[in-house]
Amino acid sequence: MSDKEFDLIIIGGGPGGYVAAIRAAQLEMKVLLIDDRQAEDGKPAPGGTCLNVGCVPSKALLDSSKHYHHIQHDYAAHGISVESVAMDIGQMIGRKRQVVKQLNGGLLQLFKANKIEFANGRGQLLADRVVEVAPNEGETYRVHGEHVILAAGSVPFTIPNVAIDGEHIVDNVGVLEFDAVPERLGVIGAGVIGLEMGSVWKRLGSEVILFEAMDQLLPVIDKDMSRAAVREFKKQGLDIRLGTKVAGAELVDGKVSVTYSEGDEEKTEVFDKLLVAVGRRAASEALLAEDSGVELTERGQVAVDEHCRTSADNVWAIGDLVRGPMLAHKASEEGVAVVETIAGQHGHINLDHVPWVIYTDPEIAWVGQTEKDLKEAGVDYKAGSFPFAATGRGLAMGEAAGQVKILADAETDRILGAQIIGPTASEMIAEIVVAMEFAGASEDLARIVHAHPTLSEAIHEAALAVDKRAIHKAN
């Protein structure tokens, strides 16, 4: 294949790129999707970081480790006795790989069904929307697109004096592939990846210490919710050290020696494994030729307008490459919005209403603004909260930790933000997102009939609490 013309060329087959490709095919565009990721067997592995070494495999391990933990610590309260329990780490990792492989194959089938041309290799944008394709197998060639979407995703940040070796010092990829439970696991960064992976290996028996440079855990949520999360994680045995800065790590006699500062003190801890989870950056390197016409920001992201247009004609960029949250679902919706805009429709995504989730136990989810945001903006607001411990379903499930918090405009009552710590927070946040997207008020949620007994009753009661009329707690 050489010098081919396409209606749309997409570089990157993650949740932004592949979703855009499918939507474009539905709109009868001739599409080429380029993605270089391969599985261990050499076969194409579309789906990006999310499917292969991020969202999906981490959830598989979180679920496996949660089952193991529940059998050990929670089933006795239900009258279920288990004499002994053991975890086969190889089986757990194998199941995770199978989940990923099945989804990889499913995507390839979707590409075929939608008549999407797929190239397993690297793509680079040249001038005038010419894309150079370097296949994993075969010779390099060039194609041209009427439109091009850049969807190359992101890569992990590194930090000075801490070199990733993939065995003892790992990133989000290596932490998914341990062949045994490390006796001691160090984690640099107590964000989404650090908390989730720390939880997995703690449940399986590791002593886990998380080093977080910030003085507050998860400063993206309110302090009261952050404190509630810290309490739950400490109960689980996670050692979260806030206000600590790692100076370096080195391998000494097969162990990882970590030097860090806590206040004015210099300290050292020794681990079997060390996870570096300090965030991600746009994967813009080698994506663009000098004459591509696409401008980057100072942070290395692709500069775009509110519709994801770049500085080059008919070149678009989405997902982790651009401004906004680095989340798979945000990338997918941007991909759909861009394709529909190209097709002359009204593509749209509201970045203010993108939900965030951390899949720990309890889960943490949030959307919109926090109290800090509202105070800084000078917005007069009301807040209502309700604990899962006051719900019949939460107690019956043995999932009573956490609460729902809703923030609403003091004058209009429009919902401005919400935070949930608790069971299935990842699912329940959607109700609040829908309400916010339709400019709903806390009164709207308060007047919706919620089934009883359910966890979602906590949303109902939190909405009532905004006006100090919750039924099942003192206001």
UniProtKB/TrEMBL annotation:
Residues that hold NAD(+) according to the record: 189-196, 212, 279
Protein name per Swiss-Prot or TrEMBL: Dihydrolipoyl dehydrogenase
Pfam families: Pyr_redox_2, Pyr_redox_dim
SUPFAM superfamilies given in the database record: FAD/NAD(P)-binding domain, FAD/NAD-linked reductases, dimerisation (C-terminal) domain
Cell compartment(s), UniProt: Cytoplasm
Binding residue positions for FAD: 59, 123, 320, 326-329
Catalytic reaction annotation: N(6)-[(R)-dihydrolipoyl]-L-lysyl-[protein] + NAD(+) = N(6)-[(R)-lipoyl]-L-lysyl-[protein] + NADH + H(+)
Keywords: Cytoplasm, Disulfide bond, FAD, Flavoprotein, NAD, Nucleotide-binding, Oxidoreductase, Redox-active center
UniProt organism field: Wenzhouxiangella limi
